[in-house]
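chain below, 359 aa
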Amino acid sequence: MKAAVLKAFGSPLAVGTVPDPVLGTGEVIVDIVATRVLGYAHEIFSGQRRYLMELPMIPGPGGIGRVRATGPDATHLAVGDWVSCDPTVRSRDDLVSPDIILQGLTAGSAAAQRLQRYFHDGSFAEQIRVPTENVTPIGAIDASEAPLWCALGTLLVPYGGFLAANLKAGETVLVNGATGSFGSAAVTVAMAMGAGCVIATGRNETALKNLARRFGSRVRTVRMVGDEEIDRRHMLEAAPAPIDCVLDLLPPAATALQVRAALMTVRPYGRVVLMGGVGMAGGAGLELDYAWLMRNCVTIIGKWMYPPDATPRMVALIRAGLVKLDDFEVTTFSLDDVNDAVAHAAGNSGPFKMTVIRP
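prediction:
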């Protein structure tokens, strides 16, 4: 099969022929029809982000495709089914504390690299081998719709955060970092889950205005100015009710002070979910007032990715029309042009924008 291979950090992806994946028990082989390119993929492939990847590797986290073959333990999947491949692979020998990798992207820890050595290659290829539990049917679609369905990979991240926070319909939510790809998706997901109001923060005034225009009065925007006390006051003033839940999705370039400004707007007994990259590029760690946390009974949740049942739930939200895939603007590239796709994604990421490879 044809695939794009990262042979060394800092080198271009090499497109060539590699052996087809071999099916094992508990696995599914999928013909990839579309796979997204992360906006920060160039930082990963250059080595800047220091992801745990053993090279050479076929990169690419997840994708949309059709089932080619299933193992003997699959009782519902059939050859030809349209499916989403979830890159969040968990070790099967510890249900309480499984090791996690993002297939084709990174291992969650040094220990998880053992798992990565087996489910090693990602979706920048014509075929991918994934665990059976990581394949979710999405229903019949036209092949031309497959790139839009790649938005699942973006939507599922904030959805995992809201599920961890047990978000309830009617609650007031604050999305910190709402002008990025994952942050804008968080606004979409919160609206679909029935949030009464979403406070969307960010520095990009144009992106904030677009969010307000897209979603109407249930979304209230706050432009961050970089002063912790002023930003916090503006967030509280924008909220029509006490803020029940804060979801932080700020990127590594942001500071811990920006996280704290939003975090401390949450009401007593409220919940805060941390899913961003603050601190991953260096800088000060997040300092919080112990007494404030304790006396206000605030719950802080660290969350990486989403639970296994999130994918079929999100598919249901899309099928019900509560999340609209045609909100996304997609630019597609062939597998032969994978390096152009990585460069395009770097310069054209942001709210409701996707770069997609069609092998």
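The two ends are 10 Å apart (CA to CA). Residues 114 and 335 are 28 Å apart (CA to CA).
thats it, cya
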